[in-house]
Amino acid sequence: MSRAEQSRAAGQLPSTMAAETPPTQHRSSCSSSSCYLHRRLPLLHLALLLHIIFFFFLCSSFPAVSRAQMPGFLSIDCGGAANYTDARGLRWTSDAALIATGTPISTLNTSTSPQEQEQETQYTTLRAFPSDGAKHCYALPVATRARYLVRATFLYAGFDGDDAFPEFDLYLGATRWSPIVVYDGARLVTREAVVLAQSASISVCLSNATTGRPFISTLELRPLNGSLYRTDAEARAFLALAARINFGAPSPDPVRYPDDPYDRIWESDMVRRANYLVDAAPGTVNVSTDKPVFVATSERPPEKVMQTAVVGTLGELTYRLNLNGFPGDGWAFSYFAEIEESVVPETRKFKLFIPGLPDVSKATVDVGENAPGKLRLYQPGYYNVSLPFVLSFAFRKTNDSSRGPILNAFEIYKYVAIEPGSPDALAMASLASRYSSFGDWANEGGDPCWPSPWSWVRCSSEPQLRVVSINLSGKNLTGSIPPELVALSFLAEIRLDDNMLTGPIPDLAASSNLSIIHFENNQLTGSVPSYLSSLPKLTELYLQNNKLSGYIPKALKSRGIVFNYAGNMDLKAGNQEKHHLIIIISALLGVSLLLAVSLCCYVLTRKANKRNSPPEDDLTKAPPPAHKLQKSDAPSCEIATETCHPFRLCDLEEATKNFENRIGSGGFGIVYYGKLPDGREIAVKVPTNDSYQGKKQFANEVSLLSRIHHRNLVAFLGYCHEDGRNILVYEFMMNGTLKEHLHGRDKHISWIQRLEIAEDSAKG
């Protein structure tokens, strides 16, 4: 099937049909619908053309609609009242929700000239701050370990009507970025820096005004992709821009977004000001091209910048300019591309000369060798070079070069060492973020101590900036006492009174400098920690009107400090040791009472047995059947008991090896260790002559002991009543006597264990 047939089968009009078929043949053979379509085709083409023209007109009239802003851009209109998109397609955000201090001011008034009124919207407002010695910070959200271009601009425009121009300092976090000195109210002051983000935000702060009031017009954040401006020192220092020049520019207007996708501002070399780009060599001419230039290497300067250049037709290019922030160590690179047309092969070689820097002046630039072919970027430079404040430099062609030097652009940055600030910065930032919705005080930003402390913080000075005082009285704080306080080891004063804090008092023992603690008028629970009494410098402790309980440590009351704990209903002024002693004494009294009751029962039982007891010779009567521990015959003399066993004297002598192993003694007599033939261990009590009892008394005692059974009493196993000897047999307790446990040298029993022993004895 031919292409025409395929088109017909698909219901389409083949594009080649008009050429392949004569007009008459086509008109005679086409269907009615096809003929109608052909008749309408010129009109459709015309309508489509009109739509294209109209769309092009819209795009050219509204460039903000046609251009998409790079992701991650943040453009803040300081003092602005609304959000908007400018002619370049950049979306600007009001700073009203980003900072609580300062006053928004419009710089337009009835006396403003028409030219000034036509300036970009973001420069018609500013935010001014009081000269109160405090710092005023913006916190810009960033991605950790990403590289950003940060730009701040300042257009004074005489907003305060003061004859003295403002002068103050600009900070990145705790690092002094640059002084801001206004010499001309109509001139825009710009500061740019390339920063590697170390955390989730970058703080830009204004402080230390010496004249006038600190102010700011715009604040911009631009992410830098890839390895742009990567240095080995970026974790220790950021790059502060000193110069970024577009040479051979056709107009004074800078090149920036969207021509530069990273929105760097390339200043035109046509802009002349005092001591900046002066001493240009004779024979310096501008060259340009409209052809594309390959720039996708290194720092990627915009193509529009690389399409223009200056050429030293007499063999030399010379310039002199002042470098803001220098002298110091810097990052300096030049950008070259061969854009000048030539009809025969020619060479372009030249050297850099900087007075006083012979090592830097040795380099030779060969554009053709390093950027083969035309229209390609070549970027030689120095990652670390020491430069003066007044930089004079020259590019001079070598003897074997047929053409003079060329220069498209260059950039120079100064390394600014990053100040670490206070070691407490992380803990304080975490503490402030906990209460970010509680008020402006929690959003002051920047370092808690430098260049000035937060309004609710006091810091030490040299040798390190440490937080020594926190005052959050009456801030309506809720939840527990912030745990970040534990990490502030240099704290000397804490004031958290008059809030709604709950939970226990945390362990602040690591803050050995604590001298003043105010936790009163909260809802704290738990006990008063004992570590408070060991804080060596503590002089004031206010805990009143909380819900604390337990006992106040005795050592804390004896310190002689100002101590207020009133209003804690369950907090007792006594000491816990005395409470334990009372418990022990009460237990001992209980034991004594139980012993007295037992003695009374014993006496009453003896009296009852005396009235009902048989004659003494009843000892020889046969007892009721009992469990026999031995296979030998029972002794001839037995006592009627419930559970105990009558032992023969010979069996006990055999078990104790003739009373050889003595394990205890007392007023009653001596206790011997024994072991029965079945393996059971026994303790045999043999009374002395002084404790000798009569048969009747011994029988009563045996009868009473046989009826006493308790888990906390030694089990009574039996007796022996032969040859006038009264012997008692108990189970053997292998862990020693109670006396040894209570008073032994190697025994250490706590008061709680002693209390338990007394309680168990009382139960027995």
Structure overview:
The chain has 764 residues and is an alpha+beta fold. Among the domains are: 59 residues, no CATH class; 165 residues, Jelly Rolls (Sandwich); 170 residues, Jelly Rolls, CATH 2.60.120; 119 residues, Leucine-rich repeat, LRR (right-handed beta-alpha superhelix). It contains 15 helices and 43 strands. Strands 1, 2, 3, 7, 10, 13, 14, 15, 20, 23 and 26 form an eleven-stranded mixed beta sheet that branches. The chain has a six-stranded mixed beta sheet with strand order 27-28-30-32-34-36, with no helix packed on it. Strand 42 and strand 43 form a beta hairpin. Helix 11 runs parallel beside helix 15. The radius of gyration is 50 Å and the shape is elongated.
What is the number of beta strands?
A: 43
CATH fold assignment of one domain: Jelly Rolls
Q: Kindly estimate the percentage of residues that lie in beta strands according to DSSP.
A: 25-35%
What structural category do the secondary elements indicate?
alpha+beta
| Average pLDDT over all residues | 81
* Helical residues, percent: 10-25%
Q: Give the overall shape, derived from the CA principal axes.
A: elongated
Rg of Cα set: 50 Å
Under CATH at level 1, the class of one domain stands as: Mainly Beta
Spans of at least 5 consecutive residues whose pLDDT stays below 50 are 1-67, 110-118, 613-637
